[in-house]
């Protein structure tokens, strides 16, 4: 907020992380198609290039909406934002990476013109509902999570340490709830558990 000036608030900045996570879910079907048609190494190398380009572009941002375009998740109040993004980039490029998991069911249709998506999966109501709910989850769930410390300090009047504690509490509840939801999904079905908790 200090870097981009008064028009920038916690609400505007929280969308950066939310959009980043949403892009992961939205891009997943296309990534499966690309891996199937071009192989894991090519897609992984392309992904590294895209992430690198995004971080470098984000380091030159002069207003918060530039971060929406680059979809960067980096920044801190204590370190210069530009330096922080470049440090994250350097860390990503220098750390050893484990091989990606083997792709699961493909969404491809063979075509001499190149890869294409098989939209027939969207005829399945269960698949369509899970696809929509997963994307809505990424867009709306993360905004309150990212705003929790700011809300606790600026609206409720708690000290910053208590505001930070709120994230710990929410994350701890998330760990327990994931286990509970997993058991309920095994017992009553994934779609039913998703609908119940969404």
From TrEMBL:
InterPro entries from the UniProt entry: MFS_trans_sf (IPR036259), Proton-linked_MCT (IPR050327)
User: Where does the source fall among the domains of life?
Assistant: Eukaryota
Keyword match GTP-binding = no
Keywords in UniProt for this one? Membrane, Transmembrane, Transmembrane helix
Membrane-crossing segments per the record: 15-36, 43-67, 125-152, 164-185
Q: Which PANTHER family match?
A: EG:103B4.3 PROTEIN-RELATED, MONOCARBOXYLATE TRANSPORTER
The name this protein goes by in its record:
Major facilitator superfamily (MFS) profile domain-containing protein
Q: Which source organism does the UniProt entry give?
A: Linnemannia hyalina
């Amino acid at each position: 907020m200090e870097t981009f000036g008064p028009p920038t608030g916690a609400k505007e900045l929280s969308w950066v992380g939310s959009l980043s996570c949403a892009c992961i879910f939205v891009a997943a079907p296309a990534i499966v198609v690309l891996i199937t048609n071009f192989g894991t190494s090519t897609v992984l190398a392309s992904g590294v290039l895209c992430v690198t380009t995004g971080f470098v572009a984000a380091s030159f941002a002069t207003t918060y909406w530039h971060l929406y375009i680059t979809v960067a998740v980096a920044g801190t109040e204590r370190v210069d934002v530009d330096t922080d993004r470049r440090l994250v980039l350097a860390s990503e490029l220098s750390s050893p990476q484990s091989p990606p998991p083997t792709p699961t069911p493909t969404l491809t249709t063979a075509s001499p013109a190149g890869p294409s998506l098989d939209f027939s999966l969207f005829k399945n109501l269960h698949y369509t509902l899970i696809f929509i709910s997963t994307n809505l989850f990424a867009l709306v769930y993360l905004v309150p999570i990212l705003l929790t410390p700011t809300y606790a300090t600026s609206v409720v009047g708690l000290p910053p340490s208590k505001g930070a504690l709120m994230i710990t509490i929410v994350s701890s509840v998330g760990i327990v709830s994931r286990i509970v939801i997993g058991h309920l999904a095994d017992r009553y079905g994934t779609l039913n558990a998703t609908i119940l908790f969404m």
